[in-house]
Amino acid sequence: MKARGAWGLAALLVIAALVGFAPPAEATSFPVIEIANGGFDAASVSSHPVPLPTGGGGIDTGDLLVVVFCYGGAVSATAPGGWTGLTFFTSQQTQSRMNGWYRVADGSEGTTLSIMTSVALRASYQTYRVVGQASATFIESDGTQGDGLPGALVPDPPALNPAGWDVENTLWIALACIQTDIDSTTITAVPASYTAIRAPDRTQSAGGNAVQGAYRQNAVASENPTTFSLTTPDHWQAGTIAIEPRDAEPLSTLAATQVRARSARLWGNLNVLFSNQASVQFEWGDTPSLGNTTAIAYVSAQGAFSAVLPGLEPETTYYFRAVSEEIPSGYTGTGGTLSFMTLIDTEGPIVDMGFSVFWVVLFLTLLTAGLVMAARFGRWGKGGGV
After folding, report:
1. Residue 124 near residue 204, CB atoms below 8 Å
2. What is the DSSP letter of 170?
3. Could you say which DSSP state residue 82 is in?
4. Does this model's pTM top 0.70?
5. Who contacts 11 (Cβ-Cβ below 8 Å, separation ≥6)?
6. In the chain, how many domains are there?
């Protein structure tokens, strides 16, 4: 009993030490494009009603809004106050032009952005709603231009190395704006390793234009997207945008509680929630590589969540971390990996109690009968004389 008590005390000390460790730094998550919108002008106008990305639960305060505006002609385009221009290039062609703006939503942005051009024309546009961006200087951009006629050049977004950024979980956006001198001209493929944000938006007439954006999540200090593909080479503008991740982790792993010999309760905390809800669960295992997952649960608010982990082995170290994915944005979080040690199984091995009781009762019954008979035999021997 003393040995078992000593081992139990040692196990408790180990658990207390583990709980006392400061959690490791959580990984920041990539910003994500929660939803996109777009369109084109059916006729030549000088006031262009550009729809903002209001779907999927609507625009929330703090969301990053990005607008890309593609048009032709030696004209200027301006956005209302409150929007900051993106730098795509130092000079623009007369055949195809691309402008961009961004702002952090504060509730006053409305649902439509009215962009003015100095002359009436047809334009195409796309808008993106981003979540998970840094709170300070979080966006940089660059651009280039080219003439696909008569050569075979296609939109080639420039390399971008954001000043002062380290290797971070960056959201990269590649953009292409083309002139559609031939009515069927359009964008057919986005840069390699990029995913189209939405199909090209293009004016439905010869001499019009088309615009498309694509994204990539890549933890690098600089990025150089490959080219877009076109049905027919034409005049083009291209751009690259970098969006830095938020400074704080979206999800934290917390210390396990209610640690027993064969079970424990795991804890995590959802620090932010940009979407309507998120799926949460734990990855766990008896090695740091984990390998198992708990059942998925769904939460609709930030805060703590937990799951009971049954079927564990006594006196064993287990590792775990919390993971989450927002719905519908897909914004993910991964907490740091923590560990705990299960207790000694003070109940001993599990046995078939019915089987054991039967043999114990039988043994005691036979022993009692033997003792009674022995006592009676002794009395008989004394009474009869020898």
Report:
1. no
2. E
3. T
4. yes
5. 315, 341, 343, 344
6. 2
In this structure, the answer to whether residues 116 and 159 fall within a common structural domain is yes
DSSP-based three-state secondary structure for 48: strand
Task: Write out pLDDT tens, residues 253-296.
Answer: 999 999 999 999 999 999 988 888 999 999 999 999 999 999 99
Q: What single letter denotes the amino acid at residue 203?
A: T
Domain that holds residue 302: 10-27+249-341
Task: Give the Cβ contact number of residue 126 at 10 Å.
Answer: 28
Q: What whole-number distance in Å separates Cα of residue 277 and Cα of residue 295?
A: 16
DSSP letters, 65-79, are EEEEEEE-SS--EE-
DSSP 181: S
Helices first, then strands: H and E counts in the chain: 2, 25
CA dist 266 and 282 (Å) reads: 8
154: nearest Cα among 188, 124, 182: 188
Domain with residue 317: its CATH number is 2.60.40.10
Q: Which of 42, 128, 132, 146 is nearest to 89 (CA)?
A: 146
Separation in Å, CA 33 to CA 47, 140, 214, 350: 27, 16, 10, 53
Kindly tell me if the per-residue pLDDT of 381 is higher than 60.
no
Span 183-193, pLDDT tens digits: 678 899 999 99
On whether the CB atoms of residues 64 and 133 are closer than 8 A, the answer is yes
Together in a domain, 195 and 275: no
Residue 302: how many other CB atoms lie within 10 Å: 15
pLDDT grade for 19, boundaries at 50, 70 and 90: very low
* Residues 91 and 13 sit within 8 Å (Cβ to Cβ): no
CB-based contacts of 287, cutoff 8 Å, min separation 6 = 319
Decide if 269 contacts 304 (C-beta within 8 A).
yes
Provide mean pLDDT across the span 126-130.
96
Taking the C-alpha atoms of residue 289 and residue 279, their distance in angstroms, rounded to an integer, is 22
What are the structure tokens assigned to 98, written together? 């691309």
**Closest C-alpha among 36, 203, 50, 71 to residue 114:** 50
Phi, psi of 2 (to 5 degrees): -65, -40
* pLDDT tens, residue by residue, 205-236: 666 889 999 999 999 999 999 999 998 877 88
Residue 15 belongs to a domain = yes
